[in-house]
Inverse folding.
């Protein structure tokens, strides 16, 4: 049972998922937050698969963020993630190429607030400034959500 109540968003078109119902308690920021979150999922240039791998890694690194994992594992699979890629996100090991780089970048941002010079150099060799900023915004968004979920002990919805 969640530590905080669920509210009904004023807009009936908002999905009935518990995360939206939980965040609807913050009426004044809910709509701008939802627009921002949707933009991160829909309007970025970073590869959707890499975005989802980063989100899953954030969830794996955050105790109590199983809700985030459940929801985004399904999204990751929908954009083409394999069982091996999903397992790499959970363990932090076994990835290769861009996947390994994005997971390492995510680990360092989550754990240390900034990537090492070596990781950052590798990112700038592979990705544009726009993609790196978008990835940082995604990581930050899902760090925040993971902490809200963990603190509120949100009830897990089906993906």
């Amino acid at each position: 049972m969640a530590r905080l109540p669920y509210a009904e968003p004023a807009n009936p078109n908002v999905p009935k998922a518990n995360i939206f119902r939980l965040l609807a308690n913050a009426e004044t920021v809910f709509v701008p937050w939802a627009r921002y979150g949707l933009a991160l999922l829909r309007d970025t240039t970073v590869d959707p698969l890499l975005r989802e791998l980063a989100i899953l890694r954030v969830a794996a690194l955050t105790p109590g963020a199983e809700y985030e994992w459940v929801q985004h594992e399904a999204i990751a699979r929908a954009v083409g993630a394999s069982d091996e890629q999903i397992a790499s996100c959970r363990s932090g090991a076994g990835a290769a190429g861009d996947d390994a780089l994005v997971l390492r970048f995510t680990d360092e941002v989550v754990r240390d607030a900034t990537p090492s010079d070596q990781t950052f150099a590798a990112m700038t060799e592979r990705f544009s400034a726009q993609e790196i900023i978008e990835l940082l915004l995604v990581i930050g968004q899902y760090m925040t959500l993971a902490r809200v979920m963990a603190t509120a002990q949100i009830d897990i919805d089906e993906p």
The mean pLDDT is 97. The two ends are 18 Å apart (CA to CA).
